[in-house]
Design goal:
The structure is a homotrimer.
Chain A (H helix, E strand, L loop, with lengths): L16 H14 L4 E3 L6 H6 L6 H6 L3 H9 L20 H10 L8 H13 L11 H12 L6 H7 L2 E5 L9 H8 L6 E2 L5 H4 L6 H12 L6 H17 L4 E4 L11 H13 L4 H22 L2 E4 L3 E2 L4 H7 L7 E2 L9 H7 L7 E3 L6 H10 L5 E3 L9 H15 L17 H21 L5 H19 L3
Parallel strand pairs in A: 1-2, 2-3, 4-5, 5-8, 8-9
Antiparallel strand pairs in A: 6-7
Helix pairs in contact in A: 1-19, 1-20, 6-19, 13-14, 14-16, 17-18, 18-19, 19-20
Chain lengths: 470, 470, 470
Amino acid sequence: MPKKLVLHADRLFPADPAVRAIARRLYGAVQDLPIISPHGHTDPAWFADNEPFGNAAELLLAPDHYLYRMLYSQGIALASLGVPSRKGSSEANPREAWRVLARNFHLFRGTPSALWLSHVFSVVFGLDVVLEEKTADHYFDVIGAALRTEAFRPRALFERFNIEVLATTESPLDPLLQHRKIRESGWRGRVVTTYRPDVVIDPEHEQFRGALAQFGELTGQDVHSWGGYLNAHRLRRAEFARAGATATDHGHPTARTADLGQAECERLFARVLSGRFTPDEAELFRAQMLLEMARMSLDDGLVMQIHPGAFRNHNLWLSEQYGRDKGADVPMPTEYVNALKPLLDRFGNDARLSIILFTLDETTYSRELAPLAGHYPVLKLGPAWWFHDSPEGMLRFREQTTETAGFYNTVGFNDDTRAFLSIPARHDVARRVDCSFLARLVAEHRLDEDDAALVAEDLAYRLPKAAYRL
Amino acid sequence: MPKKLVLHADRLFPADPAVRAIARRLYGAVQDLPIISPHGHTDPAWFADNEPFGNAAELLLAPDHYLYRMLYSQGIALASLGVPSRKGSSEANPREAWRVLARNFHLFRGTPSALWLSHVFSVVFGLDVVLEEKTADHYFDVIGAALRTEAFRPRALFERFNIEVLATTESPLDPLLQHRKIRESGWRGRVVTTYRPDVVIDPEHEQFRGALAQFGELTGQDVHSWGGYLNAHRLRRAEFARAGATATDHGHPTARTADLGQAECERLFARVLSGRFTPDEAELFRAQMLLEMARMSLDDGLVMQIHPGAFRNHNLWLSEQYGRDKGADVPMPTEYVNALKPLLDRFGNDARLSIILFTLDETTYSRELAPLAGHYPVLKLGPAWWFHDSPEGMLRFREQTTETAGFYNTVGFNDDTRAFLSIPARHDVARRVDCSFLARLVAEHRLDEDDAALVAEDLAYRLPKAAYRL
Amino acid sequence: MPKKLVLHADRLFPADPAVRAIARRLYGAVQDLPIISPHGHTDPAWFADNEPFGNAAELLLAPDHYLYRMLYSQGIALASLGVPSRKGSSEANPREAWRVLARNFHLFRGTPSALWLSHVFSVVFGLDVVLEEKTADHYFDVIGAALRTEAFRPRALFERFNIEVLATTESPLDPLLQHRKIRESGWRGRVVTTYRPDVVIDPEHEQFRGALAQFGELTGQDVHSWGGYLNAHRLRRAEFARAGATATDHGHPTARTADLGQAECERLFARVLSGRFTPDEAELFRAQMLLEMARMSLDDGLVMQIHPGAFRNHNLWLSEQYGRDKGADVPMPTEYVNALKPLLDRFGNDARLSIILFTLDETTYSRELAPLAGHYPVLKLGPAWWFHDSPEGMLRFREQTTETAGFYNTVGFNDDTRAFLSIPARHDVARRVDCSFLARLVAEHRLDEDDAALVAEDLAYRLPKAAYRL
């Protein structure tokens, strides 16, 4: 007999009965609030076309770098998991790939992936036995059958998940046709885009030169002049705003900003265009562009997100064989206090601007980020991110930021995911962890329970909506 | 009906009933011990003149950068809070300023400011409803009325607070008249000073050159010669010691120390005096001066405190409009192992010297500070400081230092505050958190309860008294 | 009446009754598993010669730098504790030295040393009163009497401790005679060696030049040519493998690796041999040698351990008077992501290689080490090390690595000790802490109890055995 899959109603709540009772009450009042998903990486084509998803492996395994990086770390070849390489899509049989995951599912004990997947299996698909070698085929069949039904089409799931608004993330080169198609379809789901211009801002991006050329064509601007280049950004930002965007996003190696004079900017831009720039010049250019983006945000009202600190594509061989974004990004120490100073010197006190900071370096929570966000009107703290978007990680975030920045300089939860089916699971984990943290404050008489209830609602719903101007 | 303000007797204790019971017993034995406040920033004039304090806003809001930095971070103008600017005192109506705080008091949910203020409101002023918009005037009136009574004059509060000794902090240029007045008044309260020479040690301090000139006049030394300059320090230190000082304090950007030869010192000092020094030379001069201060401590017995790691006055605009120390200081990564080596190479094994280290970079607790203090006879660890002087911060301090440095290389609590009325609240929080930490060790059978009781008393009373030679 | 010494059956388990009950069950199933000790510093001569140990001070105090560093930090002279200096063995009377420890045993409240020693006193020696001034002589006498019995000879203790395999650590210059003697003795205890070549790899080691000469003699290689030098390593590694070694160990100041061409290696090696090298060149040489060691591991199958990040012998005076390794090592910030890249670029995807990473910088757990080990097939994480090998430290390790790297990229426990009698105590602490962490996951419904039971067994027994190829 396979083991039963049970999602315990009290999962993630503290064990102490008194604290748990408080957590349960706080969570009870927020568990069914609509989902605000202001930062994520789902594919807008899903909602534009509303085609059925494929099969368990293709939907749940091959695109989820949390899953295949863990399997890879134990010597399992990506090819066997259906992960496409530079040579094209994988030849792995999806059912076989799924069996590999099932056979190795013990590797995920204690990880958020196990929590998220259990939620997807149980709540979304109604499965009632655990995933293991002997239930692999059962899973594959049940999931496959469900995906062929109307109820599992993207729009139906979106509605079933009670998503009030979902932001996707697009390149400035994206013509945003999917978003237009969604809008024009008459479907009532709200899917907005986000302006993510890294590919035309980072001179070290492998596609930079080609992307820049396209950027010029798309906007009709002379993107080889500094003024034309900035103008092209302005035009695309306006186009994104028309497609519902309320935010931009910037994934730089560091948080460095700069505030150069006009002539210096032009000289630097010329160097960047020449292709003969040093790493320092590339860094300085990205730094200056954060300031330019902030300046444009003051004009067009887009909220600015800064996601620094990842060493992208760290694994040389994997990058050569499989390309970018294959679970081989690694966090680096990240500095904010000096890095952000030029930007803050220029705009830090202008409350019309809103900048949401993220980090992969948890040491900055109490040392730099909470003190900065607890002082500057323009700064807010994004939630625990990526490797730290996990029960322990989210708890550390609250424990290390609340006392200096409070709850109201934070912005609620981001799921930041391309795993569409896990969105309810992720928001549920975040709500449970926040309620657990609040319950401890209540139990220790550091906060009244009715105040805690207000905070729980703010974190689950009101703050993300307000912070992202949704 | 406004909500009741209740300070729960078990606040800050762990929720588990068994652990809470132990914490309660441990705390019960230390809660009424006299307060030793060996490091703080109250104004000695309060105790010299014993004049009544003004009103709620002037006493509790305008001088408390924990409060107005949080309000400012949410876009509230400092001018509306009664914070004086470079142009002079604020024109804000104190009652209106207080209403702004009341209206926004939810911002402090989960912060130590809320804990401290609730204690002040409830215990010091006997208020029994929570602070919110509709109770703002009630608060303002009750507090104002109390402050006009004899029982709320500074000396009466000092006695009511059961303060055994209170250290203030003065510039070397301070003539210490207030301390003399206190001593000569016949009042039995013990208020001592602390030698804080940053303004004549930091060549980058905006007042350095003027301060140096005054330093020469005050001491009759040629402070433009290296020997005379050092002598001026010796004379002022002796004067401070006569005014009760048992300690010096040094607030440098880093913990760097240096041990240069005589000729090098003279050359470096000449550069500093010339005003044409590099940032590195300024840093080296501060580094050398930490060594000189240690050398003098060996002679005069003053305990040395090092408080490194703040980026002071980070907000350019605010600094221009409002001046220094307006809640815009931000911690930076801080390194100790290499930084302190020159000083430790010279004096690290001389048990007559005592150096108390602080940090704003919690990553150094387990990595650098506990290993250093757990080995060098001259080093002790100051308590969790500033942004980390909070329940979670104090708990992290104990969790991350005790196993390597023990309890006996730490020095009890510092309130480090200019908010005089919050002193009992702050010591109470520290005693509760230490007892909570100890209670967990007892409950987990890592420490006997009678040993824990001894440690609790040591932390609350004996260690600060001994460490500061009071 | 002296206070009773009681080892509580539930020590180190969480206080909450439900969590504690789970922890107790998990621990119950692993508490008696054989000890796998794959990394330590006991003296193989003990097992080769099987001579009785001396007395309490000589066995338990003088060699234990955890103990005498704490005593030294409070101004107690090492000479009084029986710690040998450069001038030779201490003249301290062992009984007097033991009394100093007893009188100051309160300094260890809340430290792992207190836990370990209590276990040794109670379980190994059957003592039933606590160590304090008035029981010092009783302790000294009881321990001394026990050590003169057969049951306390090294081999008898090894068997009583249920050690399945114990790894020692030797210099490449060690002729491994003790290990041969053990093997040839017919005794069934398994004691293996570990190849620790720092002394012939670190050009800054004070014994480097002499060691290199010996290295050449011992191997018959021309160790002044790059090829001969590498060959000497190959020969010694093979000899170590024949003496049971399954691993190498590398204690470098940083984790830096390099992948230079043949000609560059030869040039660098020539600089190193010349003695006229810069600190950078020394660092680069160590970096290159990590790559060479990895390459050799691919050939001979030895598992590679990297232990970076200690500032060795930080106390100048102590080092001059007492020599190396006298409790004056201090952790430094340590970087892995860039440091390991050359090695990982070369061998990171080759699953035949196994590299176990350690750190003294806990900030790297969630930021660098878990993400690296959770991706690269060659990497695993060693347990919480040295200053962090303590209940709080081990808990932080699990809390900060599990969610990204899982349990199965970790390798169980290392005792890393020369304090032979404390080995069961240390493994017991590790098993209790791991079971406590797992119990919390179970109580919070993040892991089934039967899965947790499997993980507990894996961590206690199966993972170290597999990871070290024992």
